[in-house]
Amino acid sequence: MADKVIRVLLVDDHQVVRRGLRTFLEVQGDIEVVGEAADGQEGVARAEELRPDVILMDVKMPGTDGIEALRQLRDAQNAARVLIVTSFTEQRTVVPALRAGAAGYVYKDVDPVALADAIRSVHAGHVLLQPEVAGALLSQDQPGGSGHGRGNALTEREREVLTLIADGRSNREIARALVLSEKTVKTHVSNILMKLDLADRTQAALWAVRNGAG
């Protein structure tokens, strides 16, 4: 079942952390560590080279940090889902990472089984947000001004897709629920992001909650 294996890239400036993550993840039958990087710049280069499914990224690293690396990955339209693995719990650290395109975050003391589940979850298209961080994001203005006005541009089908995004559904689950192909769902998601002037489905989920679509 090689096509079902989740390919993971580890980006952390501490070798002992990378070694610990690799040791645990390599015993998971559906997860393969395909590479490592010691800072954000190397992480972006390795992501372009290896095209992993999921990147485990530290936030605070010398040189190019995790937030700048996230922005570069987004600008390069790299399809990898980024899961922040951090020892910092402050909202001022986590919120910018989510705004830069992270699919969620876990703390470095996370239970190993929970970490593997988090990798599977973001790979499936889910967004992992702690309630307090979701609240901090919702309390800030989204780019592009008034949300309700932009929402009027959505078709009825796009509203249905947006509601399911807010429920944390993956593209596959949305396709199944609406009896559509995954390709069609991806098109709807792209149209939603464009019309609402949002960067990713994390922002789309938050927009939907804020504007009563979820």
Question: Could you report the average pLDDT, rounded to the nearest whole number?
Answer: 84
Helix content: 40-55%
Percent in strands:
5-15%
Q: Which consecutive residue ranges, at least 5 long each, have pLDDT under 50?
A: 141-147
Report the C-alpha radius of gyration, rounded. 17 Å
Total count of helical runs of at least 4 residues = 11
Helices and strands: which structural class?
Answer: alpha/beta
Biggest pleated-sheet summary:
5 strands, parallel
Overall outline: globular
Biggest sheet: strand arrangement: 2-1-3-4-5
By DSSP, the count of extended strands is: 5
Write the element-wise H/E pattern from the N-terminal end onward: EHEHEHEHEHHHHHHH
How far apart are the termini? Answer: 35 Å
